[in-house]
Amino acid sequence: MIRTNLSTRPFYNERAVHFWLLVTAFLVVAATMFNVSRVLLYSRSDTQLATEASRNEAHAADLRQQAARLRATVDPRQVEFASTEARQANDLIDRRTFSWTELLNTLEATLPDDVRIVAIRPKLDKDKGIVLTISVVARGSDDVDEFMKKLETTGEFGDLGARIDEHVTEQGLLETTLDTTYAPGRHRIVAPEKPAPPPGARGR
Q1: What's the structural domain count of the chain?
Q2: Residue 10 within a domain
């Protein structure tokens, strides 16, 4: 006959159960903390992106306003003048009638000893053709007159009667600005054509 004391409490492994409960609780807390940190990070990143987007939109609006102000300050007459100058310069290039080398060689041959060229600016006039603005520095007015006479003798320069500007520099020299028309090659001698033989002489 088996005798069992039913009033006694059965034995349980409480330490193992407590251990696994602690491990599970730790994992839950760690996962919760990770999720909270991710949420905070993403929320902070979204805030930064929204702030940067607002800043970029404000900068773009400011640039559009600046562009509008610049367009309002542009003078259409200046744009047209610049376009005209560009077309004239392109016309000079396309015509190939202007050669810096030829011009400088001519000026060097006609330049007196006491005259020095400081600036040359060519432009194309629809009526006069090529017009040169030449600035020279000389010891006196007589030297400038001599230079102008030598330019006229070449046959390539015309309308040299007027002086645009004339003043004395700090070094005591006379600086003069001249306007002159320029037609390169006008002074060259063209050989006359040979007369055609009479009709009766062709068969001889």
Answers
A1: 2
A2: no
The confidence score (pLDDT) of residue 193 equals 44
Q: Are residues 162 and 119 in the same domain?
A: yes
Are 118 and 158 within one domain? Answer: yes
Helix/strand/coil (H, E, C) string of 78-95? HHHHHHHHHHHHHHHHHH
Quick one: 124 and 163 in the same domain? yes
**Full domain range(s) for residue 22:** 15-73
Please state, in angstroms and rounded to a whole number, the distance separating the CA atoms of residues 82 and 188: 35
Q: By the 8 A CB rule, do 120 and 151 touch?
A: no
H-run or E-run covering 98: none
Same domain for 177 and 104? yes
Is residue 161 classed as helix, strand or coil in its secondary structure? coil
Number of Cβ within a 10 Å radius of residue 107: 20
Rounded Cα–Cα distance for residues 174 and 124 (Å):
28
pLDDT, averaged per 10 consecutive residues of the chain (204 residues), comes to: 52 66 80 79 75 80 80 71 70 64 89 91 83 91 91 88 82 91 62 48 48
**Quick one: pLDDT at residue 147?**
92
Residue 51 and residue 113 in one domain: no
Residue 191 has what pLDDT? 36
Q: Model pTM? A: 0.45
My answer on whether 44 and 103 are in the same domain is no
Residues 6+ apart with CB under 8 A from 182: 98, 103, 122, 129, 130, 131, 132, 156, 157
